Fold each of these.
Amino acid sequence: MRSQWADRWVRAGLVVSVLGLNACAPVRVSSHVDTRTDFSRFKTFDWGPADALPAGDPRLDANGFFKDHMQGAVERQMVLKGYEHAGEGDTPDVRIHFHAVIRERLNVSALDVRQGFCSGADCSAGVSEFEEGTLIVDVMDARTNQLVWRGWAQDSVGDTLKNQDKLANRIDQSVKGLMGTLPGRR
Amino acid sequence: MRRRTAIVGAVALVSLIGIVACAPMQVRTYVPRDSDIRKYHTYGWAPTGAFDTGDPRLDNNTIFIERLQSAVERQMARKGWASAPANQADLVIHFHARIDQRLDLKSVRSGQVSEDADGGPLVYDAGTLLLDFIEPRSKTLVWRGWAEGSVDGVIDNQAWMNEKVDTAVERILAAFPAMAVPSAAVASKP
């Protein structure tokens, strides 16, 4: 009897700690790079043509805040990496495009089984749907218009889209993470 | 008799675990009955327009596309095939890459997780890579090969993805006929 109670407490503690983990779980970031490209010849950047920058989701497409904040965040990271914004009327070395995609994904929580807290018929697998957001930043060689680098960040979106502060925070965190693997100039 | 059943059971179990544990790549080909590949000598690439892969990381990702094309070109060269511009090639290749999320129904059954779920992913990304060889004038399919398998975590790791692409292409084209005549005799490269 006692051990059953102990079990429950351990379980509750685990659930709490997992919830805590989820709340501040790092955004998943990665990238692909064109290995034949010599990034040291790139110095200046600019944005791709405005009409080529759809956010990819109606909730974000109409959201001027998303675009502005995103551009600001990317620009900050580019400057930190030693790139310069091309001057007015100058042709940049690279052009940057970004877009966001939001899609429904499935998740199965089978934590209880893995932790050995249940067996057989006691185990229920919670299959749930969640919205996964993917933020993509493309760097194109302005001369050849070829993609030379693509970075992305993926995370569960939750109620981020409804809260501007949360959205701003998430954008900053994602952009900082995904831009981390772009070859820098310093 | 009983022992034999036990052995069969053990073998079945082991192979089942093998399937679940590493979800091996499945490779298939389809060749229309009347197609005769010996008639053809050169191949080219059909233009790659925007294509929907089901995964935002791969959509219009030319880094991925070029890797895939160079893997195909390497295998075709090994088989003695010469490449040519699309408007002159005897055959053009169309490729499709697709990623879908799958639910492992062996481990999740009617809302319950079975005990033998061994910590492998219950939800995973399954990838399909398909190569179609088309006769451009008649637009008929001459040869089709495809590979399917789990690509969970693969896209996020470029080196792993490259390896996976190379393996898939090599295995798909393993069944593609090699050129009987050395390509040098046929190729008219500028």
Note: The longest helix of chain A spans residues 2-23.
Amino acid sequence: MEQVLIKLTVNGREEDVRVSPHKTLLEVLRDDLSLTGAKNGCEDGSCGTCTVLLDGAAVRSCLLLAMEAQGHEIVTIEGLSDGQNMSPLQEIFVNQGAVQCGFCSPGMILTAKALLDSASSPTETEIREAISGNLCRCTGYTKIVEAVMAASGQPVPVRTHPYEGDVSERAAS
Amino acid sequence: MVTFYRRLPKFDYLAPQSIEEALALLSRYQGSAKVIAGGSDVVPKLKRRAMKGIDYIVDLKGISGLDYISYDGAGLKLGPLATVRAVERSDVVLETFPMLAQAAESMASPQVRNRGTVVGNICNAVPSADMAPSLLTLDAKVSVVSEKGSRTVAIQDFFTGPTKTVLSADEIVTGIEIPNPPANSRGKYIKLTPRRAMDLAVVGVAVMVTPENGICKDLRIALGAVSPTPIRVAQAESILKGNKFSDELIDQVAEAAAEGCRPISDHRASAEYRRDMVRVLTRRAIRELLSDEAASAQGFGKGA
């Protein structure tokens, strides 16, 4: 159970890290590489906020040993921006109101990226299926789905609130 | 008070390059080594301390060529590293074994399915294992090896209890063989859950029916989450086999399936509800399969 020196490729950079074999990729990213974008939520594979990309596929970094990630390309949310400016996908999430408290956002955005990289214009059903393992307790998901549609250049459906209009009209109807 | 662990216990990580090497490790470390493929069941179990005394994790992913999904005309072969996601998207699975794809895509979330494997799902052997009912109706066979030799276990004999299988600590599953379903058969898996994703089955029902001129040539029914292991209900199957389809007989089959299971009550559902749903879903599955094609012309398969 000695520590071992491993190489991880994170956001295009090769990192030498000394890890204990029982450490998850999430722990190593956050504690050893100071990449705190991937969030530590349930640690049980249920919430999706620790999602990272492994060779382009969305995976749960809390269920993955750091040892298993050797030899694979890891992308975290930090890998999307250039450090100064947000990536277009992140920008659209902000502009569409898909970010509220922000805790699910890194996982949501990386999950969305994996989807958009494999399907250029996903349907609403495909988007909802892709993010079905990412919990968000703020947005109700609608704005997130709209952000992914907008990011793929699709028109965002206009939703009329049932109670739009003034109070007297509402009372009358 | 229950202590809630969220960190993994300490262990050493071993990545053998061949099956032989993996088997040697398992026999050397006896019960203190645990095999992982995707790790999506083992890691949370270790964190919960539901699995104790594990000093070594033996990762099969260092062995090349184990992620195959191959079809040779007579049947399908799934390797121990074939992920749930790969199975759910495989053209041959979608075309020839659609109920396997249905079961696969009903599991967990895309992120978990990208890592988790079909073989891992059955080795974990929870009563609600989603791949199990479909594999049971397809009469799958599990290939097992150890240093002492190899054996083939029918999927019906594979599960021995909740999270228990016939596997001993020094054995590895090297694949699942699934023979072609009977000609003109149709099958489906219905999973009852409050949520479509990230939920375990409250009840899982897989049905495969082979109709021929209004007669039931073959019927196979398997149930998940309603007995200590996933099960086939032979008694229910025999009611229709060789007989003309009728609403009365279908009702009898559904009733027999409900009587053939031994559900428990837990936070997901009461035993009574589970039994009721076995009856409803078995009937629904048979009717929907019949209404898919010619049988609908004879007036069966309407409604649920």
Note: The radius of gyration of chain B is 20 Å.
